[in-house]
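Hello again, I could really use a second opinion on something today. Take your time with it, there's no hurry, and the full record follows here:

___
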Amino acid sequence: MKEFAKIHKKYTFGKNYLGRFFFTSKKPMEQLQKLIFANDFHKVNSAFKLFQRHFNTIFKKDLPVLKNWKKLIEANLKKNSKITQEIDKRLSILYETKPSRQIIKIFLLLSAGKTSGGGANIEKQKSITLEISGSPPEKINDALGIVWHELIHLYFEKENYCPLIEKTLPQVPEDKKMKIREATTSALFPNGILGKRYLGLKSKGALHFSLLKASQTIPLLKMTKEYVGKNLALDESYIKKIYRIIK
């Protein structure tokens, strides 16, 4: 498992995400073999063979839970379609892009314990992941907050905001630009301004546990709240200020 964990750290994001083939392909090992080095593949394949029976036991238990989450999310989105439209419109103003009319695929995945999380840009099609099996049904709004967070990364920030960051801070390293994008998104969802307004979610100290300090949250939320309240698009001034907050 230690060897597998080391390998997994090499392939954790986007197109190189190691796990994506196991829910996007009928022959995951064949696809995985094309992605990673032969020595790494041998170790991964050995680990999966060793723990296959244990995984099947867990998956058998959690599959009904994932199916229930699917029904719960679909029912909630249908029931609260007006809120969905309001959020869509609000994000379109902030990011200066048209309201989304695309069909987005959401992959519901097993989660570690009671934690939940998500990811975007998992495959060529427009899709996101939601790790949710360990969360109780009453956490539906938390789950939707994560969905909106990932939708911002997948769709809303792409057309104008990401290029604007490049234009405003051309000399800033890519990891800092990523941090700006993540901080902006976290200031909105799941526990940011829009998560609180539309989903009733509360800020839990730092907005992003691995990226932002609790002390950075207050000025970030204050600035973002002003842009939301005045129906302003995120601009160069916002980007420069957020960079000063997080660097």
User: Anything to note?
Assistant: The chain has two domains: 1-79, 81-247. The chain has a mean pLDDT of 87. The CA atoms of residues 17 and 175 lie 18 Å apart.
